[in-house]
C-alpha cells in the first residue's frame, strides 16, 4: 500500500475499522452506524422503546413500525439490507418515529433532528463512495490503460513537489473523484491511499500534478 500523509485540509474523519459479519458492500454503513451509536446523545435510540415499562400505552397505536439503532445493527449483521438505501430507510425511521411521538421542542425531538442532520451529512459521503466504486468498475471494464506500481510510486514523489494551495486542490479533486482514497485519522494530518485510486483517476491527477509543477517552475524562472 502506497500512502502519503499531509497536514489536515479537510473536515475530520474517523478511522475505519473492520466490521464483523457485515455483508460485502455494507461496510461503510456499518462504520457510519458505529459512529452514530457512539454519540452520547444517541443512547435513547440504541434499543427498542420500552413503552410498557414507561407506561406509554398510546405508543404502539401511534408508532406502527418501531425501529432503533440496535435493531439496525442486528439487521446489518444478518444481511437483511440489500443495499445502502434500505439501510438509510430504517435509520431515518428511527428519527421520524421519535419526532412523531414526541412534542416538537422537547429534548428527544430536538435530539432526533440533530442526529438526523448528522446522519444525512455522513450518508452523502457513503453514497458518494458507493457511486465512486461503481464508476471505477465501469472504467476498469472500459479498457482504460492500467497503471503500474511504479507509476503510483512516481506519482507519490511528484505530489511532494506541490505547494500547500496545489495540494489542497489535489485533495479536493480526490474527494470528488475517489473519496475512498482519503483517510483523515485525526485533526492534524490526512492520508492519501494511492493504491485506492483507480487507474483513470490517477492519470487525471498526475496530469494535474505535472501542470502544477510546470507552472511553479515557470514562475521561478521569471523571478
Structure explained in plain terms:
The chain is mostly helical and 223 residues long. The chain has two domains: 109 residues, Bromodomain-like (Histone Acetyltransferase, Chain A); 79 residues, Substrate Binding Domain Of Dnak, Chain:A, Domain 2, CATH 1.20.1270. Strands 1-3-2 form a three-stranded antiparallel sheet. Strand 2 and strand 3 form a beta hairpin. It is elongated. About 5% of the residues have low confidence.
Q: What distance lies between the first and last C-alpha atoms, to the nearest angstrom?
A: 39 Å
Oligomer state equals single chain
Strand order of the largest sheet: 1-3-2
Give a quick account of the main beta sheet: strands, pairing sense, barrel closure.
Answer: 3 strands, antiparallel
Q: What Rg do the Cα atoms give? A: 22 Å
The gross shape turns out to be elongated
CATH topology title of the largest domain: Histone Acetyltransferase, Chain A
Helix percent reads 55-70%
Spell out the helices and strands N to C. EHHHHHHHEEH
Residue-averaged pLDDT, rounded? 82
At CATH level 2, the architecture of the largest domain is Up-down Bundle
Number of helices: 8
Q: In CATH, what is the class of the largest domain? A: Mainly Alpha
Q: Find the CATH superfamily of the largest domain.
A: Bromodomain-like
Q: Give the strand content.
A: 5-15%
Amino acid at each position: 500500500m502506497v500512502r502519503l500523509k499531509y497536514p489536515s485540509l479537510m473536515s475530520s474523519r474517523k478511522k475505519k475499522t473492520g466490521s464483523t459479519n457485515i455483508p460485502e458492500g455494507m461496510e461503510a454503513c456499518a462504520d457510519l452506524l458505529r459512529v452514530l451509536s457512539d454519540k452520547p446523545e444517541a443512547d435513547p435510540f440504541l434499543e427498542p422503546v420500552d413503552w410498557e415499562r414507561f407506561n406509554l400505552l398510546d405508543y404502539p397505536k401511534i408508532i406502527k413500525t418501531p425501529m432503533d439503532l440496535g435493531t439496525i445493527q442486528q439487521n446489518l449483521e444478518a444481511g437483511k439490507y440489500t443495499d445502502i438505501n434500505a439501510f438509510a430507510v430504517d435509520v431515518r425511521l428511527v428519527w421520524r418515529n421519535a419526532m412523531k411521538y414526541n412534542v416538537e421542542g422537547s429534548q428527544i425531538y430536538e435530539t432526533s433532528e440533530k442526529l438526523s442532520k448528522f446522519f444525512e451529512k455522513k450518508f452523502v459521503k457513503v453514497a458518494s463512495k458507493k457511486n465512486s466504486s461503481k464508476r471505477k468498475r465501469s472504467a476498469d471494464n472500459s479498457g482504460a490503460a492500467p497503471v503500474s506500481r511504479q507509476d503510483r510510486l512516481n506519482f507519490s514523489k511528484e505530489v511532494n513537489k506541490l505547494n500547500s494551495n496545489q495540494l489542497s486542490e489535489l485533495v479536493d479533486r480526490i474527494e470528488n473523484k475517489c473519496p475512498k482514497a482519503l483517510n483523515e485519522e485525526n485533526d492534524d494530518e490526512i492520508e492519501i491511499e494511492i493504491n485506492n485510486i483507480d487507474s483513470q483517476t490517477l492519470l487525471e491527477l498526475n496530469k494535474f500534478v505535472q501542470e502544477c509543477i510546470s507552472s511553479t517552475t515557470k514562475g521561478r524562472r521569471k523571478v
